[in-house]
Structure formats: structure tokens, C-alpha cells
Amino acid sequence: MTDHPPAILAPETFQRRLLDWFEVHGRHDLPWQQDRTPYRVWVSEIMLQQTQVATVIPYFERFMARFPDVQALATASQDEVLHLWTGLGYYARGRNLHKAARTVVAEHDGAFPVDSLEAMAALPGIGPSTAGAIIAQSTGRRAVILDGNVKRVLTRLHAVEGWPGRPAVERRLWALADHYTPDRRLVDFTQAMMDLGATLCSRGRPDCAACPFSDACLAHARGEERRFPESKPRKALPTRHAVMLVLQDDQGRVLLEQRPSSGLWGGLWSLPQFEDEAGLQGWLDQHAPRAELDAAWSPFTHVFSHFRLEITPRPARVTRLDAVGEGRRWFDPEAPDSIGLAAPVKGLLESLRPFTLSAPVSPHSDAQEK
């Protein structure tokens, strides 16, 4: 700690220090940094929302192999898109990615509207910061970004009080981001800001000794690096309960049903889900009266950002089911289809052995849903 607060850096000094650091320590070989088209940058930016680079890289590479351009993505089915998104989490991103691709093809002749920040930000799943990142990274034109990494750097550098999600705090951070953003080298500058927040100015263990701004950082001067940015006021997560029906036929196939397009696991395929045993039994009485229920498997917990879901798998077997109904299908765990699956359901299906309903190991325990 120091007795005197550090001086506020001029924008030119900030930019020079940041870019000098980036030249030596920044990340220059990420797959989306090669052939920087608006499409490739866009896909990477959406995948990187609330997800670490190391996790994203294999998903991005598989996605590009299957959907090399926006036209290929726009003409794909939602099932194909969500199948490649399975496990990456925060599935609304995948659905919005698909919607945005169709919008770009239908309303912008297949070209991203990178000449307009407002038009980019209006696409599904793209806000002002993501739009700025796509424009800056793919065209080199000046655009301001304010993702989580940049917020962390700026709140610490200026010791900005308050949770960044509050409108007044966010306005202050946008002003600071605009203040420091240069008119040139935008590709390097935006990547450098993200790299600094991800590698040095990390949330848990900031490496202040290696930071090019340690002498100018108010949070560091106070010894309060971990206090900033302030966390969102927390509420205790409520727990909800669900019973999932694992209904297998005599071929070992499992009955799945597609979730509604919005809401929990929107558009993904899941096991039939009920609030309680009575709901499950009522469904069986109506759709599969000959089914034989087995003992319930051990419950496990899946954690979402705003609640915990305790899931009890309920196995059952049926010799024949005349009609599965609209929005349902049989799934063969031994020969899985390319469909999007809810994360805990994917784990359950992978643990099943053919022609048996032996209880599997719980696929997830306190997993964070993304």
C-alpha cells in the first residue's frame, strides 16, 4: 500500500502500456484470430460469454468444421446446432446464435452489418459490448467493449464502487472504456483488454506484480484488489424438485421429449419431467398404462444461476408403446442421434447399459449450468 493515491493515466499512456504488454504476453494464436471474418469472431464472442477460452476452443473448432459460414448455420436445424452446443452451457446462446444467423441471411443478404453498431447490437444474443468486439476484431474500426474482463480491469484501476450491473455503475464503466479506447490498432487493443482481465487481473488471484498498471491502480494502492468489482447482492438459491422418467422399451431405447423453445433447457431434448410422483403416474396412466415402474435411483442436484434442481430419476420399462406423441422420440444410447440434450440427461443416457435399468452413477452433482 502507498500513502499517496496513484496518478490517473492519460489515455495514450494507458494504450501504450497495454499494447507493449500485449506484444509480449498476450494471446496471438487462438483459432478465431486466424481468418478474422465477422462470422468467426461473432461465433467466438458468443461462445466466450461466461465461458473460459480453454473450454471454448474445441467447441469452436467443431462448430467451424460443421458450419463454416453463416449460410451453413442459417440452413441447419436447431437440433444440429444445439447438439454441437451440448455441454457448453447457457443454451440460450446457441438458440440466439441460430436465430441471428437466419436474421443475417434473411435481412442482411448474408453479410453482418458491421458498419452499424446499432444494427449489430440488435441481432439476437448480441448486445453493445459483443457488437463492439465483433466490429473492432473483424474490421479494425473503433468500437468500445465492456465485457466482464474489461469491467474487472476498470473497476480495479479506478476503484469504482458498486455492483457493475447497476445502471449508474455501468454508465461510469462505459465512459471509462470509451475514454481509453484508441482510434488505431483496435484489433490488438480489444484483445489486449480481454487478455489482461483474463490472465493477470483475474477475479480470484490477480497477479499485480506482473501488471503494467500496478502503479496506477487505485484498488492495488489500497490493497483491496479482491474487493473490486463488487459482487451482485446474493440471495439464497431456492431448491426445486423434479422427477425424470427413464422409460425404456424392449430394445433398450429411451423415450425423450423436446422442451419448449423458451425456458429451462429450451429446445433441447430431455426425459419426461414432472414435479412429483403423482404427475409421473398420471402421465403413465394416460400414455403408457402397461409400463412397469422400478425403484427410484438416487437423486442428484443440478445448479442453475438462480435455483438448484434436485432430480430423481424414475426408471420404468415398457414392451411396446403404440404412439409416442408429437414432440417425443425414442433414443438409442448405443447409437445416439445428433440432437441437443440437456446436460444432466446426456449424463444419464451415457451411463445406461443396453437392455437394463440398473441404476447408474449420478452424472452430475452440484454442476453449474451455463
UniProtKB/TrEMBL annotation:
It comes from the Bacteria. One of its GO terms (molecular function) is oxidized purine DNA binding. InterPro entries: A/G_AdeGlyc_MutY, DNA_glycosylase, HhH-GPD_domain, HhH_base_excis_C, MIG/MutY, MutY_C, NUDIX_hydrolase-like_dom_sf. It catalyses: Hydrolyzes free adenine bases from 7,8-dihydro-8-oxoguanine:adenine mismatched double-stranded DNA, leaving an apurinic site. Its cofactor is [4Fe-4S] cluster. Coiled coil: none annotated. Residues 47-199 form the HhH-GPD domain. Keywords: 4Fe-4S, DNA damage, DNA repair, Glycosidase, Hydrolase, Iron, Iron-sulfur, Metal-binding. Signal peptide: none annotated. The keyword NAD does not apply. Its EC number is 3.2.2.31. CDD domains: ENDO3c (cd00056), NUDIX_DNA_Glycosylase_C-MutY (cd03431). One of its GO terms (biological process) is mismatch repair. Binds 1 [4Fe-4S] cluster. The keyword Magnesium does not apply. Gene3D superfamilies: Helix-hairpin-Helix base-excision DNA repair enzymes (C-terminal), Hypothetical protein, domain 2, Nucleoside Triphosphate Pyrophosphohydrolase. Belongs to the Nth/MutY family. Adenine glycosylase active on G-A mispairs. MutY also corrects error-prone DNA synthesis past GO lesions which are due to the oxidatively damaged form of guanine: 7,8-dihydro-8-oxoguanine (8-oxo-dGTP). This is Adenine DNA glycosylase. It comes from Halomonas nitroreducens.
